[in-house]
């Protein structure tokens, strides 16, 4: 079943369906750019830095432009927050029903090594950007109407939730259309695989140190079984693995970043991925609290993220409570 047919079946909200269709078109355009690699100069860095102080790749900027073009063309988006723009961008349709927060190209450092990248979208109701400005974006993740990512891997996938289940579509490159290939994904509740950038170990807090120490002890330790480890440095790819075969993904609070809140951004990384994981039967916490319950303070705010298989995240929550 094609994406547009699926949307008509599960959602009566025509404007939302139009928005998702345009996000998918952006994904198809970016997939084509990613595929061209160095032939398009897309693996090169620019001399610009974004609001997080990261050096932008050409494809970070190009993807941002593609996403803006598609979202503007949808006619149902009032304004956008993007990783690659300091201020929010308002469209002429400032009273349209939706706001979008976007990471146009996630994992972009992987471009240089021909690794997997993605695009992440969070769709919020427009509570009045015309009068409130960027304040209108500061809604907890629970308010999201939909979330999706497009993953530019060996196959291009679109993973979507409208708040009722998480579903996977695969791009048919011959017809430029996304086809439903997995409905209602379920993350196994109990698993033995974790993802964390272990080079930050000395900056972690006690609860995360304890959890990872126990995983490393394997069958000889308290957990009584061996654990496996993976880290792709591309949140889309790491989260996709968890949706596919379970496990946990941790970018915890640490003492390394100037803000000491981990690396990932609440509005366009943590919130959409947390909704997708929650709708697949997993959980997502920032430590003691649910990511989706956090009241954002600013558009580019960073937040700790611990997400994945239910039983493991519950264990991590307990460890945080005990370390209080
Ligand atoms: P982005 O490329 O959009 O800035 O995001 C990169 C993020 C995320 O994809 C990944 O999980 C994390 O950064 C990797 O961080 P480290 O380089 O610290 O491992
Ligand atoms: Mn970046
Ligand atoms: Mn990212
Ligand atoms: Mn990015």
TrEMBL record:
Residues 13-182 form the Fructose-1-6-bisphosphatase class I N-terminal domain. It catalyses: beta-D-fructose 1,6-bisphosphate + H2O = beta-D-fructose 6-phosphate + phosphate. InterPro entries: FBPase_C_dom (IPR044015), FBPase_class-1 (IPR000146), FBPase_N (IPR033391), FBPtase (IPR028343), Fructose_bisphosphatase_AS (IPR020548). It is an enzyme of class 3 (hydrolase). Its cofactor is Mg(2+). Pathway: Carbohydrate biosynthesis; Calvin cycle. It comes from the Bacteria. Mg(2+) 1 binds at residues 83, 103, 105. It holds the Pfam family FBPase_C. Mg(2+) 2 binds at residues 103, 106, 269. GO terms for molecular function: fructose 1,6-bisphosphate 1-phosphatase activity. Binds 2 magnesium ions per subunit. It is found in: Cytoplasm. Homotetramer. Belongs to the FBPase class 1 family. This is Fructose-1,6-bisphosphatase class 1. It comes from Methylophilus flavus.
């Amino acid at each position: 079943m094609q994406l547009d047919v699926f949307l008509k079946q599960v959602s009566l909200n025509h404007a939302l369906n139009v928005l998702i269709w345009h996000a998918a078109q952006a994904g198809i355009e970016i997939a084509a750019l990613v595929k061209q690699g160095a032939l398009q100069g897309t693996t090169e860095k620019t001399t610009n830095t974004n609001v997080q102080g990261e050096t932008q790749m050409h494809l970070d900027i190009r993807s941002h432009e593609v996403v803006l073009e598609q979202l503007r063309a949808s006619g149902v988006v009032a304004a956008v927050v993007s990783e690659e723009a300091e201020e929010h961008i308002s469209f002429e349709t400032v009273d349209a029903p939706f706001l979008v927060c976007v990471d146009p190209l996630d994992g972009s450092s992987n471009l240089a090594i021909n690794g997997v990248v993605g695009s992440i979208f969070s769709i919020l109701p427009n509570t009045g950007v015309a009068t409130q400005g960027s304040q209108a974006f500061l809604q907890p993740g629970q308010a999201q109407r939909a979330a999706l990512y497009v993953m530019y891997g060996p196959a291009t996938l679109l993973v979507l939730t409208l708040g009722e289940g998480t579903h996977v579509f695969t791009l048919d490159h011959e017809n430029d259309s996304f086809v439903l290939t997995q409905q209602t994904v379920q993350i196994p509740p109990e698993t033995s695989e974790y993802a964390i950038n272990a080079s930050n170990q000395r900056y972690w807090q006690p609860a995360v140190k304890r959890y990872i120490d126990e995983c490393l002890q394997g069958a000889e330790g308290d957990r009584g079984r061996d654990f496996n480890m993976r880290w792709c440095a591309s949140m889309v790819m790491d989260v996709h693995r968890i949706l596919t075969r379970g496990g946990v993904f941790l970018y915890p609070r640490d003492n390394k970043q100037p803000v000491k809140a981990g690396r990932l951004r609440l509005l366009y990384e943590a919130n959409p991925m947390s909704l997708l994981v929650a709708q697949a039967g997993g959980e997502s916490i920032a430590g003691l609290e649910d990511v989706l319950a956090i009241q954002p303070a600013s558009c580019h705010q960073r937040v700790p993220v611990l997400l994945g298989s239910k039983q493991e995240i519950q264990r991590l929550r307990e460890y945080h409570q005990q370390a209080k």
